[in-house]
Design goal:
The structure is a homodimer.
Chain A lengths: L1 H6 L4 H33 L2 E7 L4 E5 L4 H29 L5 H33 L14 H34 L1
Antiparallel strand pairs in A: 1-2
Amino acid sequence: MEAGGVSKGPGKPGFGANQGVSVLDFVLRIVAFVCTLGSAIAMGTTNETLPFVTQFIRFRARFNDLPTFTFFVVANSVASAYLFFSLPLSIFHIIKSGSQNSRIVLVILDTLVQALVIAGASASAAIVYLAHKGNTRTNWFSICQQFNSFCERTSGSLIGSFGAAVILMLLVLLSGIALARR
Amino acid sequence: MEAGGVSKGPGKPGFGANQGVSVLDFVLRIVAFVCTLGSAIAMGTTNETLPFVTQFIRFRARFNDLPTFTFFVVANSVASAYLFFSLPLSIFHIIKSGSQNSRIVLVILDTLVQALVIAGASASAAIVYLAHKGNTRTNWFSICQQFNSFCERTSGSLIGSFGAAVILMLLVLLSGIALARR
């Protein structure tokens, strides 16, 4: 068994366990970065002006008319910045797969950022649902009849954020597995 | 090293590391169970009938007038049921602190339930904010002027849920640490 291990080289037994997980971690981190950045940009540039004006009002809907959407943009921007700056650490884990302390730091930060992304995405989903369906009991009427493109854009930007949330949950679990296998 | 381990007894080296973490895990799990159950009950029993009627309408606000609050109750009920049934496994980890597979199962389920609780709490927070402040741009008016006790009750029930979310995040991290120390 040992002879077989030597013939494969000293780094190989570690590769199967932790280095593979580290490579997957790196790839998922890039995907989550793209998702959160895309969501933040898609929501942050949402701006619809209706093609008619009255004497007093120009009908216009921007994402920051709703504070929840502002929170969504901030949460996804923070998450994408964090994911970008965590990439070097992820590369470090591919090279040095036995490191433990840096993994623990990363799993703590991943957990916090994942919570932030989930919070932003689900709060916005609640508002998007209200914008689409309205609520007759509270007299909150649907705004999607008028602001059609605004609604489509805000709904679409949730997809990337929920995708990123799932990926970040996977990253936390992967780090747990990597720590267990160390 | 092995002689030192024997002199301390076979169970002792594990106690300082993992058994302490397991006891903390058990205590936090009970607290989170109480928080989610309390939140689910507080929100689920929210029901305010105003003391005046018109010819056509009896003014009444229940939690399930808003689908987001129904989701909140379901999410917190599921979480409290899960936390209750995870207690025996947590006790098992205190007794047998070296077990790994059951810890991995628990950390995966904890991550999912934590995401569910955060999603429910933040979606409801977005709606509660809207109920308090309203939004002039979309003509969604505050309902807290009329339904004062409804608003207070729904706002209050968020506290337990956010507390449980933080505790569940800690549980995920604790499991990660326990797996790393094994």
